[in-house]
Design goal:
The protein is α/β, with parallel strands linked by helices. It contains four helices and six strands. It is elongated and about 95 Å long.
Length: 148
């Protein structure tokens, strides 16, 4: 057997439909496009989602627009003022300590510390992420920032 002897099995390939070649062919005259109208013209047709001028579904349901980013990272967010308020005696603040103080719900999400509020003492904060402002305020108070 050679490459030039290979043949598709019967019924595997279908001839394309030749339209507009006489009524005897079954696809003459209107060539499967019906009679007049936009969809009968060359290049005719409406854009995807067009509903004839009626407000389309995509605009009637605004929550359905856009897409979901599969790479989005969710964080448990903690601000400096809540650390100062709920943990006034702590010198080392870890995600476990934050959970006990009910600053975060659980340990399943990484923790991000944001810079709202002030830090009045040297404190070591362990978290997965810090905003620039939070980092600056903790270090200015003589504390340490440790990224997990």
């Amino acid at each position: 057997m050679r490459l030039d002897q290979l043949k598709a099995p019967p019924g595997a390939r279908r001839n394309r439909k030749r339209v507009g070649r006489g009524n005897g062919s079954g696809s003459g005259t209107y060539s499967g496009r019906g009679m007049k109208g936009q969809k009968a013209r060359a290049g005719g047709g409406v854009r995807r989602g067009f509903e004839g001028g009626q407000l389309p579904v995509i605009r009637r349901l605004p929550t359905q627009r856009g897409f979901t980013n599969i790479f989005k990272k969710e964080y448990s967010v903690v601000n400096l003022d809540s650390i100062a308020e709920k943990l006034p005696e702590e010198t080392e603040v870890t995600p476990e300590v934050m959970k006990e103080a009910r600053l975060i719900r659980g340990l399943s999400l990484p923790v991000k510390v944001l810079g709202r509020g002030e830090v009045d003492r040297a404190v070591t904060v362990l978290a997965h992420k810090f905003s620039m402002e939070a980092r600056r305020k903790i270090e200015a108070a003589g504390g340490q920032v440790v990224e997990l």
